[in-house]
Amino acid sequence: MSSRLRHESRDLSRLDRGSKPACDDSNTGQSSRFHKGFSGYRTTYETASFPKKSVQELPVTPERPAGVLYLYPMNIVLFDEPAIRTQLLPFTHTRPVAGIRTGIVTIAEKWQHVFGDVSFLTESYLAEKFPAKTGADNLLINGALCPDETLVKAMRQLPENTALVKQGVVLAARTTTLNWNVSTTQEYTHDVTLIDQVWKIFQYNAQQIRSDFKYITAGRKSAPITDKHTCTYNEEQVFIEEGVTIRAAVLNAEDGPIYLGKNSAVQEGALIKGPFALCEGSHVNMGGKIRGDTTVGPYSKVGGEISNSVIFGYSNKGHDGFMGNSVLGEWCNLGADTNTSNLKNNYENIKIWNYAKGGFHDTGLQFCGLMMGDHSKCGINTMFNTGTVVGVSTNIFGDGFPRTFIPSFAWGGASGFTTFQLKKAFETAGKVMARRNVELNDIEKNILQHIFEHSAQNRVWERK
Fold first, then answer.
1. I need a surface site. Which of 127, 284, 312, 447 has the fewest CB within 10 A?
2. Between the CA atoms of 345, 351, 352 and 354, what dihedral angle is there, to the nearest 10 degrees?
3. Do strands 327-330 and 310-313 pair parallel, antiparallel, or not at all (unpaired)?
4. Do 216 and 361 share a domain, yes or no?
């Protein structure tokens, strides 16, 4: 592919097939630096991705002969399908669906790698923080959908005013508006990875770590391991960004890759088994045991024993205790010796709270632990029963097992709950976020206030 880019009418551009362009600028995205959520890595777009600017391949005509690829910009918008968004509560209380992390990066960041800039079409109370951009030619992508090569190719070839669907679910739509419900559809026959239930965040995490690891590390060289007391297995599947500190640890990548993000740290005695991702600025504390299929998002600290779990970021599970088949949002903290059950004694399927149903739903899984929304905390020695769902900004403490659905802004434990009042919740969140040099601004407060008001129906003690 040559580096010549010639603009035609309607802002079209023509790009000859051939060798890969040698360029490094903001228009093409070649060797471009992603934002902080990408843990500071650099990457080069593969030829199949073309320029960083979103593009649409045009059909061959006499004016556009075969052998030449004609492209023009599309506006990429990741939309929240309402039913899926509700299934993904409590995590979508505070973010669009595509803001969910599975694998090394969020779903939005995966699409950003493919197409460049993206925006979000989400609930109105989230729109100030996550605004949608409009354009004359829009590619609307289901925010629960993870990209793959075949799917991206189908999207690039999607005609105007046409939706790509699979079994009634809109995967993508190319429109002149921000409405993905169009009358003309194409059925997509290949498999897709759709994160449409909370447990799929951890269920597909190993798959997504492998996928993200492949493109993040493509054509790049890992920083060396200089600590002579650190032991590695299958070292070619261990990738280390700049600024990483490792001391007397075991890194076993025989079953999957291990990614250590920029300025992260693995402390003495840590045992890590892949697939595993430790994102920018995060720590595995001394003696931590990470049993694989696990992601620790940016600026988090973990310790104890963790298996097949996802921490979105800015959260701590820093002490001894077990957490398995679980998901933690942002700004969460688990007290020392907190344990999550992920398997029932009778080995039956686990049922968890479903916000859409207003009751418990069979996951079909034998293993499912804790689902904890943003800004929630628990005290020392907390015991979470199998399949517990915790809302936003809860504070849990005391002995015994608390109920398996704890609504947002709850304060208490097994002995009962009261309401964590909004003013106090703001005070706590402000202090916690300040420790990471992040401000609890009015936009964040408005989001939390909306959640507080709309979650009151689940705080049954307020009805007494």
1. 127
2. -170
3. parallel
4. yes
Q: What predicted TM-score, i.e. pTM, was given to this entire model?
A: 0.86
Binning pLDDT at 50, 70 and 90, where does residue 46 land? very low
Contact 259, 292 (CB under 8 A): no
Q: Which domain holds residue 375?
A: 203-463
Cβ-proximal residues to 460 (8 Å cutoff; 6+ apart), any chain: none
Kind plus residue range of the DSSP H or E element containing 419 = strand 416-419
Residue 256: give its domain's CATH number: 2.160.10.10
Q: How many secondary structure helices (H) and strands (E) does the chain include?
A: 7, 40
Residue 73: predicted pLDDT:
76
Instruction: Kindly report the backbone phi and psi dihedral angles of residue 8, in degrees, each rounded to the nearest multiple of 5, phi listed first.
Output: -115, -170
Q: For residue 189, with 0-12 CB atoms within 10 Å meaning exposed, 13-18 middle and 19 or more buried, which class applies?
A: exposed
18-24 average pLDDT score: 32
CB atoms within 10 A of CB 265: 19
Whether the link from the prior residue into 51 is cis, omega within 30° of 0, is no
Q: Are residues 151 and 208 in the same domain?
A: no
